[in-house]
Input
Amino acid sequence: MKQPNIILIMTDQLRGDCLGYAGHPDVKTPYLDTLAAKGVSFDRAYSACPSCIAARAALHTGMEQSHHGRVGYEDNIPWNYSHTLAGELSKAGYYTQCVGKMHVHPLRNYLGFHNVELHDGYLHAARYGSVPYRESQFVADDYFYWLKQELGVTTDVTDTGIDCNSYLARPWMHEEKYHPTNWVTERSLDFLRRRDPRQPFFLMASYLRPHPPFDAPQYYFDLYKSKALQPPFVGDWETDEFLKRDGRIFDSKTGPLDPELVREAQIGYYACITHLDHQIGRLIMALVEQELYDDSVILFTADHGEELCDHHMFRKSRPYEGSCRIPLIISAGKNVLPLLKASETCHAVTELRDVMPTLLSIAGREIPDTVDGFNLLTLTENPKNSIRTWLHGEHSYGDFSNHWIVTETDKYIWHSQTGQEQYFCLENDPHELRDRIKDSDCRERVRILRGHLIESLKGRPEKFTDGEKLIAGRPYLPTLSSATAR
Output
C-alpha cells in the first residue's frame, strides 16, 4: 500500500476543553470540529510534563519524562537523541518539513527533519546575555528575518507592550498577513507547492498561538468582546493567598486580581484559538484542492494547556486539567486508515509520547526500542479500548512542584515540596471543584494511586521515595542526567 502523507498540526498552550467539538460553550473552532467529525478525538489526552520543552521532548522521542530527562523547564540543554520522530520518518522514505516552533537546543537543531522554517516565539534565553551570534533568535528565527524583510524595520511580537507570558491582551498591530499564525500556514502552503510529488511527506505545522501574547487580529477579538463568557472554575479547596500576593503582577503565575483583566485574558485567548482554527482551515482546504487530503493522515494536538485563571492560576506546569489535559485528534482521508471509526470519542488515557509510535506505524516504520509510548491506531479502530490504566505526570516548579497519577476516571496529586495530597473524581467532577482527599470512602482508592506514584518514582535520583512512602522536600531539578549525559 502507498505510504500516506502525514500532517502533524501542533499548537502551543491549548487546553483540551477549549474547542467547539469538546463542548466548550464559548469558543468556536469549525475547522477543528470538522477534523474531529472525520476522525477520532481523545478526550483523556495529557501532557505528562506540561511545559514547552519537556512536552516536545516526549513528542519528538516517544519517551516518558524520566527517560528523555526533562522534568521541568530549562533552556540551553542540548538535544541529542538517537531516535526522533522526523529522523525515523526520514529513514522510512518521507520528506520531512517543520514550519514554526521547535524550542530545542541549539535553535537550528533539525532533530532529523530535512528542513525547518523556524519561529520559536519569544525566547528569553536566545536573546540576552552571552548568546552566540548563530544562536541569537534575531539571527536564527526565520519568521523574524522574514518580518524585517517585509516591513523594512525590525519589529517584534511584543512591540505592543504585552509580554510573552502575560495575561494581558490586545489586537495584532499589523495587517493580519504578518501575524505568526498566518506565517506558519503560508509557509506550509509554500511547502506543498514545492514538494516532490513522487515522495510521501511529513509536514509538522507547529503554531505558537494560543500561547501568549494574546494578540489575534481585531476581527477575532470582536467575536468575543460582547459575549457573556463562562467564568473560570474555582473549587472548594482554593486559597486566594497567592492571588492576593501576586495578582497585580503582569506575568504572574496566578493571573490577575482584577476581574476585568480576567475577562480580557479570556477574550484574547479565545480570539487566538479561533484565529488559529481559521488558519488550520486554510491548510486543510489546500490539501483538498491539491488532491492530497484523501491520501493523508492528520494528527492534531498541543504541547500543554493553559489554566486561564481556573483555581486562581495562570500559565501551565500545574497538575490540574487546564494545564495538563490537551486536545488530540487523528483524522484521515478516504484512501488511508480504512478501519478508523469517524466521529468517535475515545476515553483512553493517552499522552504525547504516543504520537511518535502512532505516526511511525502509519508510515510502516519499525518503532525503536527507546520508545515508551503506545501506538494509538488500535484505538482509532476500536475507541472503547484502553492502552494504559494510569499515567504518571510531573513538573519541577519550585514551591509548586508536583507529581500526579491520572486515570480515565480520577486523579491523585502529590505536591513534592510540601507533601500536600489531593484527590479528584474526574468522572463526575471534570473541573476539579471538590478535593476528596479526606473523604473516608476515597481512602482505599487514594492508597492505590499513591502506590502507583511510589512505583513510578523508585530509583529516581531525587529520592522521592524509599519504596514504601513518599518523601517531601527533596531537591528537584528540571533536567535529569538522562538528558545532560547525551
